[in-house]
Amino acid sequence: MTQYPLWQQLNTLKQATWVDLTHTFDPEIPRFSEFEKGEVSTLFTVKDHGFYVQRWNIGNAIWYSH
To answer: Which range marks the domain in which residue 63 is found?
Structure first.
């Protein structure tokens, strides 16, 4: 196979150790006390509207960081 720079980069990335820092979101996630809580609200449901939509208000996303 022809050597392209992206293949070399992919091989480099495959050798790394990956750490998943994602976590679930809920309104009680730790935050600075002066910041508002996050909120998840359901706007439309399959039963009532034929589709499902939620609004996620995460405020200042920085306060969810490590």
So the answer is: 37-66
